[in-house]
Amino acid sequence: MSDVPGAPADLLRSLTRAERLLSRRLAAVLADDDLTTEAWRVLCLLADGQGHPMSEVSAEASLPPGTLTKLVDQLVDRNLVFRRIDPLDRRRIRAYLTTRGRREHARLDERVRTSLAEAGVPADTALLDHIADLIARLDPAGRRDQAAAAGPRR
Question: Does pTM surpass 0.85?
Answer without folding.
Answer: no
